[in-house]
Amino acid sequence: SWEVIRMIHIRDNKLVSMGLCSINEMSYCPVVFGMDYSADAHLTIYKKMLYFVLQRGIALKKENIYLGITANETKRKFGAEQIKQVAYIQVKDKYNQELIDSMAFGSIPQE
Asked: For residues 21 and 14, what is the distance between their CA atoms, to the nearest angstrom?
């Protein structure tokens, strides 16, 4: 229930991106994309990989094609529906969190 999508550059036959996608009965979901950022910038690798994922999900006749939680504007251009989600976490030791906050706001946390 896993599939690999690869993007090969036509000019030099070089692998520029690879994606690992999960397939189940009703959905198709890219889990990991790897991209070679040293490739030509004009290739728009991420957008092309999203396009390949959509094409593959459609070809497999999946009811849902999940595209992840980042780059919402890019995904909307492909017709994706945005679903708001909320996550809660509980931190037992929040010193590191306070330290990062202090860097942003200019004060050092006290223990």
From this structure: 21
pTM: 0.64
Closest by CA to 8, choosing from 31, 54, 39, 41, is 39
Q: Which residues contact 29 (CB under 8 A, 6 or more apart)?
A: 21, 22, 23, 65, 66
Amino acid at 100: I
pLDDT digits (tens, 9 = 90+) for 60-102: 999 988 887 665 666 777 777 777 777 787 777 788 778 877 8
Indicate the DSSP class of residue 39.
S
Ordered alpha helix ranges (H), the chain: 45-59, 72-77, 95-105
